[in-house]
Structures are given as C-alpha cells and as structure tokens.
Design brief:
The complex is a heterodimer of chains A (about 475) and B (about 140). Chain A is mainly alpha-helical and about 475 residues long. Chain A contains 18 helices and two strands. A five-stranded mixed beta sheet of chain B has the order 2-1-3-5-4. Chains A and B meet through helix 4, helix 5, helix 8, helix 9 and helix 16 of A and helix 1, helix 2 and helix 4 of B.
Chain lengths: ~475, ~140
C-alpha cells in the first residue's frame, strides 16, 4: 500500500513538474503521452534528490515528499494562471497516409518487437532480481543499501576503503531506490529491478511519443521498433546498471531542446521546455559522471551558437532573448550541479579515472598507439554494440538513410545542438579512455558498448527527426493561436 | 542530357520499401531478444543465486556482528576473482568490510574448501558459522 502511494506520488510530482514546463495551460492531447513518459524520469529524479536531502537534513521522508508535492502544485497553479491561454491546433491533419500494406507491416513489426522486448524484460527481471553483472551489486544497489540501511551514518559506505565500488558515482539511481525501500520498510530486491524495467520502457515511450508529436506515426513506430529490437539495450535495461537511466535523460534533453526550438515563434518566449531540458541534463549529471560531460557539451554548444557573428547565427536574431534562454537552461541544471559539487567535495574520495600523476597523463596523451586502439574499438563497437542478429542496427539506419534521403529544409538549432553535444560527449569519452589508469583494452572491452547504448535512443530520435519517412511523416506539433 | 527529378510517388515508394526492409532487419534482432530471454524453468534457481551467496549465506554471522564499524576480511589466497568479497560486503551493509586482516574482527569466507593455516596467521577463531563462514579475532590489529 505504501509502495503504491510512493509510486503515485513519484509519478504525480514528475507530471506536475513536466506540466509546468509546457507552454499552454491545458496541454494538447497529442503531447500528453510524451508528458506522461517524461514524468517517470522527472519523478524518479525528484525522489532521488528528496531522499538525499532528507538524509542530510534528517527530515521525515513522507513529510518532505508531501510538502514538495504541495509546493509543486502551488507553483503549477501560479504559472498556469500567469500564461496566456492558447488554443492547440494540430499542424497537420495527417490526411496523406502511407500505403495500407506499410501501415499494417509497421504496426505488426512494432507489436512483435514490443511483445518480445516486454517478455524478455520481465523474464530477465525475474531471473536476476539483484541485477545481471557486477556493477549492480558492487556499485548501484550497494550504494542504495548504504543509503537505506546506513540511516544517519549513510556516509560510512562512501569510503576510500571502497574505491572498487566507485563511491564518486552520483546517486540518482541509488537514492531513488532507497527512497522506495524507505516506504516499504525493507530493501526488497524487486524495487531496483522494477525501476530498471520502468526506465527501459519509459525510454521507448519518450522516443515513440516525441516522434509521434514531431513527425507522425510512421517515424515513431520505425524508431521504437529499432530500439526495442536492440538486444543489448533490453539486456542492459534489466541489469540494474545506470546506463539506460542515463540514456533516458540524454533523450529527454534532446527531445525537449528540439521541441523548444521547433515551437512557433510567439510561444518561444516561454522558457518552460528549456527549463525542463536543463533539468533533464542536470538529472543526467546526477545519474552518472558521463552526464556531467553531456551537460557541459550542451551548454558549450548553445554558447557557441550565441557568439557566432550576427549573419551566421543559429538561433533567433534577438541576442538578448537567446542569452536569457541559455541562462534558463543553466539555471535549471544548476541545482543538480550544486548537489554533485557538494557530494564530490564533501562526501566521497576522488574518482579513480583521474588518479594518474600529471606526467603519466601527458605520456598517455602523446602515445599514438592509444589513439589507434581506441579508434579501432569505436569502429568495431559501431557495428556490434547492440548485439544485433545478422544486421547491425547502425547499418540499418545508414542503409535506410541512403534509400529514403533526408527531409528538405534547414535543421533547427535544437537538432544541431543535440548532434554536436552528443558528438562532443563521445569525444570526451575518447579523451577519458586516453588517460584511463586501467589497462586500455580491458577498459574498452568492459565499458564501451554500454557507453554507446547511452547514445542509442537519442541517435535514433535525431535520425528519424531528419530522415524522410513518407507521406505520413508530418508534424502533429501544436500551432497555437493566441486568443 | 538532362535527367528529370524523381516524382514524389517514386520517392514515397522507395521510402516505403526502405521502411519495410528496415523493419525486417529489426525483426531479426527481435528474435534474438526473445531467444536470449531466460527460460521459465531456470527462473527459480537463477533468482536465488545472489541471495544464496550473500544475504542468506551471511544471515547468521550478521546477527552476531556490531551494528556499525569496519571489519577485516580473509579468504582463500588462491581466489582470483573478488566476487565473494563483493557479495560479503553487499550482504553485511551498513558494516564496512575491508579486504585485509588488519582489524580486530575479521570475517573468513571459504566457500570452496576449509582454510589453510597459512591464510589464518595471527587470527583466532571466534565462531564457525558453517558453510565456510567464520569470524576471527586479530589481537595484533591496531
């Protein structure tokens, strides 16, 4: 009963937060599925932060949850009252449709991929309730247990004696798990298993609903089928690692940036979607260290777009509004960054990746053999990270691009920001491999495929945002008409 | 020679065929997703594996230990993978288990075979909990 109450509160908190970011008082029906799927990630992010704050300030968890929910509701009410009411009109009527045989085929393929993935997810969660692989019980669930069982002494577990547990890893996932355990009163293995499963399904949900909104049913179904048919994504989703939750927040950031920049000009002045994008990037940073890199990349790219000469500007022609938009993005990510800074400075020992002395790091940076080794692994993993059968998903995307071609017209800044930020993040991973204190091949072998999965949902989203998908690929994104 | 641009019908047909091939490629991997799902017959055994090696295995020992503190840890010196150590720590949270005998209380974990006397230098057995789980005292520990 308490667990159901916690789950409801988590989802409701996430939904109210997401609703605040939407730009109209009554969200259009077409956007509702996306808002619901996003709510799951935001709710779990909120639960994580609230749990840690309740541990730090020795506060009653239920009181903290209810108080925060009340604050969110009041804020939502105040914001919704202050906004002009806008009537949502869908941009296209979707009158032009793909051939019937294609619609039936895509629906059948999607249904098969969905059923296969759901069956596999449930069976995996039942077979490995403590997670599949070391990282589940040496890092994520172990930290969750220290947070839950440690009570006021939760910091005991984040000790230099335990460098092997990666105590410097951020706490979104462990603290969210510990939050639910607190309601339950015991550390039930089913909780991290269900959270892993929910993040996996929600990632597919965000991908599908965002593309449905922006491009229509056909691209949405093709994209969701591609993700559901990625065996390693499904496997990792129930391993109780943090890579799929991170992939969720990457995707949420990318989707919200594209939605913000794709909005009608008269609605653009409301920074709601940008604030949500900043929050998602902040949650990504609070999930894994790679998320910090991603957040920095997003901010850097937006900044670069702003400082371009006037004639070549990527955003609007009003620099003051663009600078304000960037400020909103940074301000939304700031709470998570502050929490991470406090956690890294005051609680945990330094991470292991930057443990090399400066001389050794320089030596590694100047070693061409390391560049070559990493490059080879990047190329190899491009073809195999998903554990696909016969035809790699990446090859399928490339082949589809050559057959279908890209949609005409310029790409909007949100799309460009996302592509550049993901590329920069990938380059950042490359740099970390260059200086890793571990044996480089061992490190690549046991981590690179997971890192690629972090990008996979966002890559599929960006691909189907840009590729031509036939007559049905038209935007359902609402075009408001102010009253 | 001037080539005329492809008609929108032609493009649409190409996209449709491309989409169909794309879906077929995806379905191949969906088959792998399905095939690699654990079989229902192995669920029960598989689900209990980690608990057997951690929570259940150390339940009696945990009841005999203090609520908080740092404990030492010894195992068979020939052990190559640290899995048993990790699972010991996982089970005994919120205690911190240091992989070293230099603590007043030391946990012995010998799941495969009884400990050799060489691996128990300076350690005095307090209690054998069975199943290779032991608790030692190290009087030399500072």
């Amino acid at each position: 009963m308490m667990l159901a109450f916690a789950a409801l509160l988590c989802l409701a908190s996430g939904f109210v937060l997401v609703s605040m970011g939407w730009f109209r008082r009554s969200p259009p029906r077409a956007a509702l599925p996306l808002m619901l799927w996003l709510s799951i990630g935001y709710g779990l992010g909120i639960f994580s932060v609230v749990f840690l704050l309740s541990r730090i300030f020795v506060a009653n968890l239920i009181v903290a949850d209810v108080a925060l929910f009340a604050v969110l509701l009041v804020a939502w009410w105040a914001i919704s009252r202050s906004r002009p009411r806008l009537d949502a009109k869908t941009a296209s009527s979707n009158s032009a449709q793909s051939p019937k045989w294609l619609r039936q085929s895509r629906s059948a393929a999607f249904a098969i991929a969905l059923c296969s993935a759901l069956y596999s997810l449930v069976m995996r969660a039942l077979a490995d309730p403590h997670g599949d692989g070391w990282d589940a019980f040496t890092t994520w669930n172990l930290h969750a247990r220290f947070l839950f069982r440690g009570g006021l002494n939760w910091r005991d577990g984040f000790t230099p004696l335990h460098i092997w547990t990666h105590p410097d890893y951020p706490l979104l996932l462990p603290a969210a798990i510990a939050h639910f355990w607190s309601y339950l009163g015991r550390d039930e293995a089913a909780v991290p298993a269900i959270i892993g499963l929910i993040f996996t399904v929600a990632t597919v949900g965000v991908l599908f609903s965002a593309l449905s909104l922006l491009r229509g049913r056909t691209p949405a179904m093709l994209a969701a089928t591609a993700l559901l048919a990625t065996p390693f994504f499904i496997e990792l989703g129930t391993s109780q690692y943090a890579d799929v939750p991170l992939a969720f927040y990457f995707l949420a950031t990318v989707v919200l940036l594209c939605l913000y920049d794709g909005r009608p000009v008269d609605a653009k002045h409301s920074p709601g979607l940008l604030v949500l994008a900043g929050l998602a990037a902040g949650f990504a940073a609070w999930t894994k260290n790679e998320g910090v890199l991603f957040l920095c990349a997003i901010v850097l790219v937006r900044l670069l777009f702003l400082v371009k000469p006037a004639g070549k500007r990527e955003m609007s022609q009003d620099p003051r509004k663009d600078w304000m938009a960037l400020a909103w993005l940074i301000a939304a990510a700031a709470p998570a960054l502050l929490l991470i800074a406090w956690y890294k400075h005051s609680v945990v020992p330094p991470g292991d990746l930057f443990a090399n002395p400066a001389g050794t790091t320089l030596h590694k940076l100047l070693d061409p053999a390391r560049y070559w080794a990493i490059l080879q692994w990047y190329v190899k993993e491009f073809f195999r990270f998903g554990h696909w059968l016969l035809i790699p998903g990446t090859v399928l995307l490339v082949a589809f691009y050559f057959v279908a071609g890209r949609e005409e017209g310029p790409r909007q800044p949100g799309f460009r920001t996302s592509v550049l930020a993901l590329t920069l993040t990938l380059a950042g991973y490359f740099a970390v491999y260059l200086i890793t204190p571990y044996e480089i091949h061992w490190h690549l072998r046991f981590s690179l495929a997971r890192l690629f999965v972090q990008f996979w949902p966002s890559t599929i989203f960006l691909f189907f945002s840009a590729v031509r998908c036939g007559a049905e690929a038209q935007s359902n994104f609402p075009q408001p008409t102010a009253k | 020679m001037h080539e005329s641009p492809p008609s929108s019908d032609h493009i649409s047909q190409r996209v449709s065929i491309g989409a169909l091939v794309f879906l077929l490629g995806c379905l191949l991997s969906s088959a792998r997703v399905l095939m690699e799902a654990p079989a229902p017959s192995r669920l029960k055994e598989s689900a209990a594996e980690i608990a057997k090696r951690s929570d259940l295995r150390f339940a009696a020992l945990k009841a005999a230990l203090p609520a908080r503190g740092i404990l030492g840890y010894v195992e068979d010196p020939s052990t190559t993978l640290p899995t048993d150590y990790y699972l010991t720590q996982y089970a005994l949270i919120p205690l911190v288990i240091d992989h070293s005998p230099n603590h007043p209380l030391v946990i012995g974990n010998f799941p495969a075979s009884p400990p050799s006397s060489a691996s128990l230098d300076h350690l005095q057995l307090i209690k054998d909990f069975g199943n290779g789980v032991m608790l030692f005292a190290n009087k030399d520990a500072k």
